Amino acid sequence: MSSAPVPASRIARLILQDFRTYASLDLPVSRQLVALVGENGAGKTNVLEAISLFMPGRGLRRAELGDMARQGGPGSFAISLTLDAPYGEHRLGTGIEPQSEIGRSSRICRIDGTTASSPTAFAEFLRVVWLTPDLDALFRGPAGDRRRFLDRLVLAVDAEHGARVNALERALRSRNRVLEDNPDDRLWLDALEREVAELAIAVAAARRETVERLAALILETREEDSPFPFATMGLEGEIDTLIATLPAVDAEDRYRAILRDYRARDRAAGRTLVGPQASDLLVRHGPKDIPANTASTGEQKALLIGLVLAHAGLVASMSGIAPFVLLDEVAAHLDPRRRAGLFAALESLGGQVWMTGADPSLFTELEGRADMLQVSPGKIEALSTP
């Protein structure tokens, strides 16, 4: 992996209109580190969510777009940011128009005043990674949570991955419906399974490549005395075995045969049992060589932080863009050594970092090094002047 510096951009100005708790917000920012401080419910996470919408998908809360519009507002919202990049200034915007009576609102994306086809277009200008409290149980929770986490890791380096995953989900739903309603329609099922196999192998291959690259980067850059232990990673599932042992074309053929042979079983189950939708991301605590889900709560938190930091490095290496890093309440349960180690690691990443916390003392050591901002309902102002 190359360790050469990559271009780093900075959000110089963030404007929110009728987004969540903000009727109107115009927030200038000047530093690489940004600390948002305020009571629970003040609106700190809303700011991170707004930035996360410049990635494909539904943002860090995975909410419906209509739910992001301010209650009592017109039913629309707009987010605009001015990006100060090494190669010039750009203005990016996204939002929705008021919902019509005949359907749901569509998302609007603009780059320098020109309409973009989708949020995927933003990937030319910025990448975003994040860590939120709901991920604290990632290693103990169901496999579906880890698949979503993995797909977000892939999406940060491959902006088209989300479209492939969505297309696969639609194809699988179509196959399930045909198995339920017309199980003897072999021609229709053959056509659907050809589409499912092509998409499934593409999704599984993208996941495998990201995991392998991330594992290699972690191995290359790990430090034994780091406050954040290194992780070892792998994928588990029948489709992942196919990808690991066969060329892509042969893997597609084999998966189509599996789908054909398992039609009766899948019809009885009401879902397709083999495929990327059944894979699991396996993570181990590297220094102790134990499954992550058997580590202590504190060890799991530190392991997850280390994994996200490594992923930010991978994004920079693969995309050539230092990513924005969004950390929601990440420092609250860290001891002073790990907190200091986190801040040092964040500064070394190069990209702009936005953090939240209820207690201003969590960020005391960043005074003079970060924009310290006080968040209250609908308003953000300077906490102190460095």
Task: Give an overview in words.
This is DNA replication and repair protein RecF. Belongs to the RecF family. Its main location: cytoplasm. This protein has 386 residues and is of the alpha/beta class. It has a domain at 159-294: Glutathione S-transferase Yfyf (Class Pi), Chain A, domain 2. Helix content is 39%, strand content 22%. It has a six-stranded antiparallel beta sheet with strand order 2-1-4-5-6-7. A hairpin with a 2-residue loop joins β14 and β15.
Task: Please specify the SSE layout and strand pairing.
Elements: E1 10-19, E2 22-28, E3 33-37, H1 44-52, H2 65-68, E4 77-85, E5 88-96, E6 107-111, E7 114-116, E8 128-131, H3 143-157, H4 161-181, H5 186-221, E9 231-236, H6 238-245, H7 248-261, H8 263-269, E10 280-285, E11 290-291, H9 297-319, E12 324-327, H10 336-349, E13 353-357, E14 370-376, E15 379-382
Parallel strand pairs: 3-13, 3-14, 8-12, 12-13
Antiparallel strand pairs: 1-2, 1-4, 4-5, 5-6, 6-7, 9-10, 10-11, 14-15
Helix pairs in contact: 3-5, 4-5, 5-6, 5-7, 5-9, 6-7, 9-10
